Prior knowledge:
Layout (H helix, E strand, L loop, with lengths): L2 H14 L3 H19 L9 H24 L3 H15 L8 H15 L7 H12 L5 H12 L2
Helix pairs in contact: 1-2, 2-3, 2-4, 3-4, 5-6, 5-7
Amino acid sequence: xxxxxxxxxxxxxxxxxxxxxTASTLRMVLTAITxxxxxxxxxxxxxxxxxxxxVAREGKKRRESIEAYTSAGRxxxxxxxxxxAAVIDRYLPAQLDDAELAALVxxxxxxxxxxxxxxxxxxxxxxxxxxxxxxxxxxxxxEVRRQLGG
Length: 150
């Protein structure tokens, strides 16, 4: 089943179960998908990969909000964002652990022939398609920097 269809099916189930948190979170994600579909000069249907990118972007927004609310002492709002992030994470591919990420970065460095911190762009260009949403960009960049000695 396509990701977008799965989101719609789960929204219907959450509404029937009167699960307000899940329903509102899924509505928010579906709205972001629809907004992305109608952006630009012509409306179009997003592919599953594009839908997953939108879902990942929504998850990232939640993580950033959690940090902001926690640092401001607004723990009740941070808890709500954590709950929404947990709902969104169900639709994302499993994240790579540190060892898997390090191995992929090592391979990408070898494939690109990079040496030194100035070659970070080359490594990221090789690495990004291989990750396809399975690791946060900040984590990836930090690992590349660490292995390149920057």
